[in-house]
Amino acid sequence: MTVRHIEFERLHNFRDLGGYRSADDRTVIPGALYRSDSLGKLRGADWDRFLALDIRTVIDLRYPWEADAKGRVPEPHRFTYANLSIEHRPYDQAEIDPDIDPWRYLADRFAEVAEDGVEEIRQAIELIADAEPGPIVFHCTSGKDRTGLIAAFVLILLDVPEEWILADFALTELATERLTADWHTANPGRTMRWPAYGRAPATVMELVLADLKARHGSPTAYLTDHVGITPGTVTRLRARLLTPTVPEAPTAPTAPETA
Predict the structure, then answer these.
(1) What single string gives the DSSP state of each residue in 132-169?
(2) Whole-angstrom Cα distance, residue 121 to residue 149?
(3) Domains, the chain, ordered by start
(4) What's the predicted TM-score (pTM) here?
(5) pLDDT beyond 70 at 257
(6) Spatial separation of the C-alpha atoms in residues 95 and 107, rounded to whole Å
């Protein structure tokens, strides 16, 4: 069974995307591709633990001004580092109206990213397919929304079944409490209006994938026809990240139950 969350003191949502089985009975290679919350939080023992993973490529999905304010991965010269902001319309989740449907609201924000961020989404996926040999990590601030979207797109291109894509998205729920505590520490004196801050139920990604199907025919068609992911990129992505399934194939993760 693949261990998904890798424990750090300051990072709360660092996960291995390895271990998922594709529809053609191959497996995503453990230790090849990671997703995370902000690597700008790495310090001390956390930094040593991160370096021990031998990561070679870091993809930062935040706005440049976020990276400037909160910090990038330490010593970025050690890595192939790319800052690809897939989101173009910033919003403050802590200030979302608590009376609106939270999951539909988030899915609508994902839809904006999927339309606005086509160029950066393509660049991020191409970099994952074509980066120098060695593990890769991509991240945003909480490792939840922007990171969750890229994770879903990569798993779609690897032909991982939707139920596992939804379950992977929802694993952020295990980090919600710590992400919320971080927000309160960073924002003394502010009141968090939105009670669903930091939440990531599978329902959100289910809505996102349904929206892509309605608009583009399927999530795969969105990626190939709208984003411009070529068959060659898909072939290289699968060659890099998939291996024949071993007899003891992992089961899909069980995400926390959510409303």
Answers:
(1) PSS-EEEE-SSSSSHHHHHHHHHHHHTT--HHHHHHHH
(2) 9
(3) 15-244 (3.90.190.10)
(4) 0.92
(5) no
(6) 17
